[in-house]
Amino acid sequence: MSEAPVVTRFAPSPTGFLHIGGARTALFNWLYARGRSGKFLLRIEDTDRARSTPEATQAILDGLTWLGLDWDGEPVSQFARADRHREVAEAMLASGTAYKCFATQDDIAAFREEARTEGRSTLYQSPWRDVDPATHPDAPHVIRLKAPREGATVINDEVQGKVTIGNDQLDDMVLLRSDGTPTYMLAVVVDDHDMGVTHVIRGDDHLNNAARQMQIYAAMGWQVPVWAHIPLIHGPDGKKLSKRHGALGVEEYRDMGYPAVGMRNYLTRLGWSHGDDEFFTDAQAQGWFGLEGIGKSPARLDFKKLENLCGQHFAVMQDAALLREYEAFLAATGQSPLEITQKEGLAKALPLLKTGIKTFPQLSEKAHFVLATRPIEPDEKAMKALDGVSRSILSELTPHLQNASWSREALEATVGAVAEAHGLTLGKLAGPLRAALAGRTVSPSVFDMMLVIGREETIARLADARG
To answer: Domain spanning 81-230 has what CATH number?
Structure first.
């Protein structure tokens, strides 16, 4: 018999943005499924109606889409499945694995106060657990799980190892509230079962939940999924990730100009390893990723490592793909779209622009010479390079360029000859030439720029700079 296909899921609560920790959880689930020809499903846990808005849900979908994580089928709404959750609670009631509890909040508070006074466990033990249903009053009630009181629940976790929790530490949790709404614990188990989820890969803050959820699986006679509870992400200081550490949502990283492929590489490596490999492709990540490579300790954000990986990905990215992502970055950050001439010029310049950059804003700065339109406005530093002597030399250089063969070798020889005639090195003349062509003191090689923008534009910019 062949093994059942792998089915993973990502189940965020819509809170307005896709948290970087949630994004890594989604990525791990996506990699695990895609590397095994399985399914990666998406469920929106939108039962908190006060916080669950269409805008918040859309923010999560947008974050996943930008990160390049495609899911199978339509996203499932947990709230829309409430009738199914109630149906399971009623089935458990009928089988005797759940019971009606008529205790009020005052009753529960009194029980806990008495337990505290007597030094007993405050874990609530309902007096309704074994009451004959025939004697039940016609009154508001909740439905509780009839959890085992003795023995232990053992979680065999692929990351945390064997975790044993005594059943005397687990109460008869509420499955259905008195208003008939299902609790989170019940909904998660029913949804995972109905969606055919085989592997639950999630944050280790859910580890205790797994013990409770296993009792629902047992009560229903359902197959328990493979558990993998991954450590959370901490800030560089080793403390729980918070706003003081910087960006928390993936859209912030998108808006800062990190490429999605670099983010995928970095987040995959954050808390997971494959030997000493740091830089890898999506195909390699899918082929290599396994639960055994996930560490037990919290991972720490490292922006230098993120930037380093992004720089490596920029350098090897296909020009057409890089141009598409750059245009998407401009749109996402509300910047003006590229005009046709800018797009054509950038496409021509990309081979010499994409090395050494780590973000899209750095690409914008480096590509200023090809994106800007005449007259080129020099910045403060570039203006200093365009003094009277420099302008005079550029004026002398212009007719030589008009007659030069437009190849790198010929251009270097032409500029070098003019520089030598004035007792200058080629580097000394490159400064004002760069300022005239790019309006910046830092740019690609002046000869690369001349080859990209062409003879006519080069001469026109030198004429503008001469004043």
So the answer is: 3.40.50.620
Question: Would you place residue 2 in the very low, low, confident or very high pLDDT band (cuts 50, 70, 90)?
Answer: low
Token pair 């307005």 is found at 16
CB neighbour list of residue 238: distance below 8 Å, 6 or more residues apart: 298, 300
Judged on CB neighbours under 10 Å (0-12, 13-18, 19+), 137 is exposed
pLDDT at 48 (0 to 100): 83
Strand, coil or helix: 332:
helix
Phi, psi torsion values for 178, nearest 5 degrees: -65, -20
CB 128 within 8 A of CB 103: yes
326 is written with which tokens? 């750059």
pLDDT at residue number 437: 95
Q: Flag whether pLDDT at 430 surpasses 80.
A: yes
For the chain, how big is the Rg over CA atoms in Å? Answer: 32
What is the per-residue burial (b if ≥16 Cβ within 10 Å, else e) of 54-92?
eebbebbbbbbebbebebeeebbbbbebbeebbebbeeb
Candidate list 100, 243, 348, 384, residue with the active-site label: 243
Strands (E) across 59-203 are located at 76-77, 98-101, 142-145, 152-157, 161-166, 174-176, 199-203
Catalytic site includes residue 296: no
- Whether the CB-CB separation of 229 and 29 falls below 8 Å is answered with no
Domain ranges in the chain are 81-230, 380-466
CA distance 342 to 365: 14
Check whether 243 is labelled as a binding-site residue.
Answer: yes
Position 325 pLDDT exceeds 70 = yes
* Backbone torsions φ then ψ of 96, nearest 5 degrees: 85, 10
CB of 178 closer than 8 Å to CB of 233? no
pLDDT band at 237 (very low <50, low <70, confident <90, very high): confident
- Cis peptide preceding 182, ω within 30 of 0: no
- According to DSSP, residue 43 is labeled E
Half-sphere exposure of residue 153: CA atoms within 13 angstroms, side-chain side: 24
Sign of CA dihedral 434, 439, 442, 444: negative
Please state the rounded mean pLDDT for residues 440-462.
Answer: 94
- The SS3 of residue 44 is strand
- Is 347 strand, coil or helix? helix
Give residue 202's identity as a one-letter amino acid code.
R
Report the C-alpha gap between 178 and 250 in whole angstroms: 38
Fold topology of 380-466: Arc Repressor Mutant, subunit A (1.10.10)
What length is written for the chain? 467
